[in-house]
Amino acid sequence: MPDNKKRKVDDNLPNSWAQRYDEALAMNIKPTFMDVFDRHTCYPFFSRLCDHLCIAEIVALTRTCKKYSGLYQYLLPIQWDVDHKLRRFVKDPYGFRSQMARHDALVSGSFVLQFFERVTWMESDLDIFIEHGEGANKFGSYLVNKEGYALTLSTEDAEYELHSYEEPRRYGHIQSGKCFIGEPQTKIQIITTTKIPIKSIFRGFYSTIIVNVMGWNKVYSVFPLSTSIQHKGYQLKPIDDHHAPLVNKYSRRGWDMQEIMWPEEKRINHPVRKYRRLGDRFTWTIPVDSKKVEWSKTPDYVLEYASFRMLSNHEYPGLDERYIDYQHPPEQHVGPRCYGIDAMLFVSRTLKHTYLRPSHDYELECFLGVRVDQSTQLELRKLELSKRPPNYDQLIQNPHALYRHADYERPNTWTYRDDDFPGWYQAWEQNGNKSAEPI
Fold it and tell me: Domain of life here (predicted)?
């Protein structure tokens, strides 16, 4: 296995890269690109060149010859080091990620985009999304007590939209008490949501560029082809007076900001399509070293099978009712065009965790619903007569209530079907080939 750590080079050693390079020049032998771009013989050159290669160029090099086929995998822990990125905000990135694992918190927004792009915007902050409750309070206490932050209240606008139907609430801005000369103070925001954080992330951002998620052990770019390869961004909210400055900000940073894709644009393997999930084949997923991190009790597939539906606001007016004239058909509407991400919760008494699925998809609801209904009925029938809920007969006769509305005590012998959920979703996806549908 190659050593991923940057090595020290002693120019005085015999046969060092510097000596061999000087000898080649003395013999009028011009080094080729493959001579210079070699981590074994010319590591300083190799490392400096890699610092300036974008992901598209790195992937292109892996396809040129066998020598560079493993370049991306070799560079992953060097060029995409999430702990190094976090050290701008926290002293102990392992402890920070352990808190994320303990409380099922997610990081999103521009911090994750900077991680994938390998850049740093000093004016940016760190946004943590976490479900409202004790976990959010404990996370805030950790930042104050362990990282030296102080809690300050703020109502500043952010890059996400706070939907009234979800009622996400800001815990507040946590602003560092340490000020570095020539640098702005670091700032962390804890955004609390009434439901699972991934729902607020999917439905809150205004552009595909910043729909990226960092978990405790993996980092996800949901639209990597358009964001990191093509450097394009598509609107998830209509461009109004609030969103226009935000869109302009990313235009200045080098992205081609557009409203939607046009029908004639190339769509093969494009991540903008009707049905998506966080961990699908269109997502750029980077696992990060977690040996020193406390592991989460929530399986990765709960997050990676968070699925959603994308539609244009002209196809499905309900995505943004503020900009739709219901007296006219969509083709006559000339207002701002954008996509929308639509998703809703999926819960069941035979699932320990809460999942996210596309809204307005009766087929998927029935596909998953019949499976959790059957599992719930089986578990109810297995109960001893004395341990059955008072409304047992009603539950058995009304399958819909089994996984949507009913609330009753489940014994320790109750069997949960979370491990089956990824297989169920894959079966539905393959059966209908939903992921192949473009918008």
Answer: Eukaryota
For the chain, which ranges sit under pLDDT 50? 1-14, 155, 157, 161-183, 316-330, 332-333
At residue 178, the pLDDT reads 29
State residue 343's pLDDT score: 93
pTM of the full predicted structure? 0.84
Q: Where are the domains of the chain?
A: 17-78, 82-287, 347-439
305: Cβ contacts below 8 Å, ≥ 6 apart: 277, 278, 279, 355, 421, 422, 425
pLDDT in tens, 302-322: 999 999 999 886 654 444 433
Q: What tens digit of pLDDT does each residue of 71-128 get?
A: 999 999 999 999 999 999 999 999 999 999 999 999 999 999 999 999 999 888 899 9
pLDDT tens column, 33-65: 888 888 888 888 899 999 999 999 999 999 999
How far, in Å, CA of 357 to CA of 344, rounded? 6
C-alpha to C-alpha distance for 55 and 265, rounded to whole angstroms: 22
Among 325, 228, 321, 328, CA closest to 271:
228
State the CB neighbour count (10 A cutoff) for residue 273.
18
Q: 242 is written with which tokens?
A: 């609030």
